[in-house]
Each structure stands twice: as C-alpha cells, then as structure tokens.
Design goal:
By secondary structure, the chain is mainly α. It is built from six helices and no strands. Helix 1 packs antiparallel against helix 3 and helix 4 packs across helix 5. It is extended and about 75 Å long.
Length: about 200
C-alpha cells in the first residue's frame, strides 16, 4: 500500500512537471496570429511550439491573466517538487484557494501599475476588469489596500502560516542581522590581531 501511494505521488509529480514544461513552451512561443479562442480565423498551422493545443492554452492564459500567466509554470514546478518529496497536504482546498488569490491579486497589481491597451501585456482580462470595478467602488488607494490584503491572505493560505507567525519571523530579522554583523566584526578584528606585523628586531653589528 505504501509503495502504491508513493508511485501515485511520483506519477502525478511527473505529469505536473511535464505540464509545466508544456506551458512554458506554449507561452514563450505565443503568436497572436495563431488560431485560438480570441482569433478563430487565425492560421491553422500554428507557430506555437505546443501546436494547436499550445496556441489555445497560451491565448487563454495570457488573455485571462496577462503577464502573470508566466508564473503558472513556476507554480506547477513547485507543486511537482512537493509531490516528489512526498510532503503532506500538497494541494489541499485552502492552498488551492491561496493560489487563486495569488494570481488574482497579482493580476490586479499589474493592471494598477502597468496600464496597456492589450490585456495580454498587462494584468489580463481578470486584472483589468477587477481593477475597474474596485477603483469605481473603493478608489485607487482602496484598491491598492484590497490588493495587498489578497496577496497577504494568499501567502498565509499557501504556506499554512498565520499572520502572527509571519510577524514573529519578521521581528527576529533585525536581531539576527545585528548578531551576524557582530560576529563578522569580531572575526575581522581577530584576523587583524593575528596578522599584525611583528616588532622590528635590531640586528647585531
């Protein structure tokens, strides 16, 4: 039973890694002239390295998420590594929600700081539509605050770590930096003393 469970996890890890590689090829070779959902009259001989499937996949991801879509392969690689290492709760419901909130928040953030005419070059349809609705209701500052909340909540859900734990970790950083700098200064001081030139010795005439 244990061997079957391990085999299943490694099999799913290999499938996820293959999906990540295919997504990368599809995204980097995207062409707006290829036939896709948004360009049904495009060429039936796609330039996309993933073929017709890759052309459709890249079009959906880029039009929906914009440049945030390039994070999809990275997330898939991280997920594959977790499957290979047999980490518990690799993809629970809360983590799935966290990943969704991460892409949503990043898409809005890109749309806020990088306004372009083409959705695929900004935050996609998701980011642009969310930005327009939120800024209409809460203004620019309020939208920035909501986006920050989405990203923080996504980090908490994906890492399964509470805000208090994050704050405790951040609070320890200054002390650790001071300790590291003190150790470096002490080491440099000891080396200076060790390599101090010896006193001059007078030669007998």
């Amino acid at each position: 039973m244990h061997n079957n469970s391990r085999l299943n996890r490694e099999l799913w890890g290999a499938v996820t890694l293959a999906a990540a590689c295919f997504t990368v090829l599809s995204l980097v070779s995207y062409s707006p002239l290829d036939q896709s959902i948004n360009v049904p009259s495009g060429t039936s001989d796609p330039a996309n390295l993933g073929g017709l499937v890759g052309a459709y996949l890249a079009d959906v991801l880029l039009q929906g998420l914009g440049i945030t879509a390039y994070l999809v392969p990275l997330i898939l690689v991280l997920l594959a590594l977790r499957l290979f290492r047999r980490e518990p709760n690799t993809l629970g419901p809360l983590k799935v929600l966290g990943y969704g909130m991460l892409f949503w928040g990043l898409a809005i953030l890109v749309s806020l700081v990088h306004e372009v005419e083409l959705a695929r070059e900004g935050g996609g349809v998701l980011g642009g539509f969310s930005r327009d609705v939120l800024t209409e209701l809460f203004g620019y500052a309020g939208t920035c605050g909501i986006t920050l909340f989405l990203l923080l909540a996504a980090a908490m859900l994906m890492s399964q770590t509470t805000m208090l734990s994050w704050w405790s970790l951040l609070a320890r950083i200054p002390g650790q930096l001071r300790s590291a700098l003190g150790a470096i200064r002490a080491s440099v001081w000891r080396k200076k003393r060790e390599y101090k030139s010896p006193p001059n010795v007078k030669k007998d005439r």
